[in-house]
Amino acid sequence: xxxxxxxxxxxxxxxxxxxxxxxxxxxxxxxxxxxxxxxxxxxxxxxxxxxxxxxxxxxxxxxxxxxxxxxxxxxxxxxxxxxxxxxxxxxxxxxxxxxxxxxxxxxxxxxxxxxxxxxxxxxxxxxxxxxxxxxxxxxxxxxxxxxxxxxxxxxxxxxxxxxxxxxxxxxxxxxxxxxxxxxxxxxxxxxxxxxxxxxxxxxxxxxxxxxxxxxxxxxxxxxxxxxxxxxxxxxxxxxxxxxxxxxxxxxxxxxxxxxxxxxxxxxxxxxxxxxxxxxxxxxxxxxxxxxxxxxxxxxxxxxxxxxxxxxxxxxxxxxxxxxxxxxxxxxxxxxxxxxxxxxxxxxxxxxxxxxxxxxxxxxxxxxxxxxxxxxxxxxxxxxxxxxxxxxxxxxxxxxxxxxxxxxxxxxxxxxxxxxxxxxxxxxxxxxxxxxxxxxxxxxxxxxxxxxxxxxxxxxxxxxx
Length: 464
Hints:
Order of helices and strands: HHHHHHHHHHHHHHHHHHH
Number of helices: 19
Oligomer: single chain
Largest sheet: none
Number of strands: 0
């Protein structure tokens, strides 16, 4: 690897850590807002506590969300013989995401890092369409983009509604009026309220690490695959013959289907499975480990796995494909096992992102905390409102992480605060100016980051 390539690799990795660092003080401020604002925990203790739980969340969160990010913009489409094209993609993605995150943080707006990252990724995929040598359309995985977009759309609405319901439950179960009053400046609440808020803050921080931290892991894997495709295309710990067995079974099951009912798309997916399964089998014949495969051929094996699994999943979802229930169950299991060869992240990547997110959590939280605590509602946030919003956010992010769906911590919590304010005195209890600003940031994040990242991508491709 040349010196200049090493320099670009280091720059990209540093920028990925910077994005996650900014994510820490931008998004995690939402988690610590309640404990700081309600005097339940000193600011220094709160941000360290949240940072540690974010670190643990990333370390224990798996890689399902990370792979969702990687699959949103399939690097198989963008990686070509010119490695600097991959560098252009990564630089554009990271710089546009960091610029927007820092801008919204500067103005104290609880905008979504998830929205920012996904907008940047889609922008690059769309810009790919305008390249003069492109003949295959955009490079966006629109099925994945649709699922991700739906999750980002539903999460604030769910947070708003669930917080209203949570406040109703609080009113039914907790009759002590102190929990519904505004915090007294400089005075700590009773210990039972503090413990409740400590727990909710910890849960949001932990699940934020599991969801948002994984996005950083996905970013780093995109960098490594784009710049060093031969070294990071495949998981060296997976036995190639085990994967070959999975691929063979997938191909055999697909072969049992009645192709006379297939349309044009189903025929394409069917042929993809057969052709790539044959290539994978021939390329790995007599080879047990990834190290035994020539460096120049490893990325092709990654393409085989991606094409086979994606095509098989498309066929499973098609109404024209008739497969027995038993075969359907086996096929899903084999697809999942085959993906292990390409869906992975080295331990050092997870640790690096964990540290970046944890350190970022400990810095820059004040701007967002003030917005969350004082500027969403016309009345300052009460203990019950803070707890209900964080319980809702923790539950929502936890469920999303379990299903490998990236959601916005910011949207879940800020909409939860809105819901808790509305539960007390209706819509008139919201500060119109702040809600309008948050809504505009929500609306503008995707188009702005798409335009910014797409423009930077085309610029960097022309320069590099």
